[in-house]
Amino acid sequence: MGDGPDVTAEGSGTIEVGDLTVHRMGFGAMRITGRGVWGDPPSRDEAKAVLRRVVELGVDFIDTADSYGPAVSEDLIAEALHPYPENLVIATKGGLERTGPGEWPSNAHPAHLKEACEGSLRRLRLDQIPVYQLHRPDPQVPFEDSLGAIVELAQQGKVRHIGLSNVTVEQLRAARAMTPIVSVQNRYNVADRRSDDVLDACEREGIAFLPYAPILDLDRNRTLKRIAKQHRADVRQVVLAWLLARSPVMLPIPGTGSVAHLEDNVAAAAIQLADDEVAALSAAA
What we know:
The protein is of the alpha/beta class. It has helices at 44-56, 72-81, 110-124, 143-155, 169-178, 196-205, 222-230, 235-246, 259-267, 275-284, and strands spanning 14-17, 20-23, 27-28, 61-63, 89-94, 129-134, 159-165, 183-187, 208-212. β4 (61-63), α2 and β5 (89-94) form a beta-alpha-beta unit.
């Protein structure tokens, strides 16, 4: 599968993220940065071309974070797409710091989160962030204190909806006792389903689930290779199709720094897996 009239996010269907409706095939903007998610990408022009193609393909949900670069991903999104299409939803995150390539120490102190949100607003050229997510609970800070800072930002009108990332069912429950939660972003793919319980909780409550690291090197998965051959598709496309079939609240956010790879990922929205194929992939993990 590749570029053509069928390459569109519309085939993925739609999902409600709070009061916002988006297609279920999103885009993760981590890979438009440099190696180790640090610094500029090899070509800023190519990264911006990817972002513009994202919108052309009907993808209307972009996930980023202040720590991607740091700051680089948010800057590029604004450079490429501002003023934004009316239907585009940008979700960003705060709660991590960057001390070097591949290094992600937590900092979810309230003061840092408020400062991080202000930086994201400035870089993204927004008056209000559509979805602001706590990137990761900080073991050095009470979870309620971190989330409380984001609640304050929402009360001030700087954040429209609140999401979480890297959380347990218990943390999701505690958060929902404090404020409405519209999304959860946890690691999840056909080979790593440790967050099945969190996904199931999101499905019960109608909360969007954003699986990060949705595509892994799965070439040794014989079931996956067989199904991909039957659909004349790449194994990565079948993995994305499986995620869409796994739950109606699933909102995959595959990322890439390549227009060609972006088009291949979005084309996965057109793959309709049979029930027995979905079950076989689930059992093969």
